[in-house]
TrEMBL record:
It comes from the Bacteria. This is LytTR family transcriptional regulator. One of its GO terms (molecular function) is DNA binding. Pfam families: LytTR. Residues 1-45 form the HTH LytTR-type domain.
Amino acid sequence: MKSLQNYVQLFLTDKRVLTVHKTLKALLDLLPATQFVQLHRSYVVQQEFITALHGQVAYVQATALPIARDRRHIVAQLLAQRPLHAGHR
C-alpha cells in the first residue's frame, strides 16, 4: 500500500493496482497487525512479501521501498524470525 494523502494505492499480487478513498491510518486500523507492517509513513506491506533488507531499503519481492530508521529494527526482527526458506517466494 502506498499513501497518497486521502487515498491509498493497493498493489495486489495479481499485478492490479486499486486506489481507494481512505487514509493509510484508516486502512491500517482495519488490517491485522500480525500480517502487515508500516515501513515508512507512506508504505505498508504484507510481512510475508518482504524478501530482504539493505540499509534503509526493504525489498518487497523485486521492489525496493524506503524504510524509516525507527522501523528498520522491526523489519530486521521479522526477517530473522522466519524459517530460512520463507523469504524466497
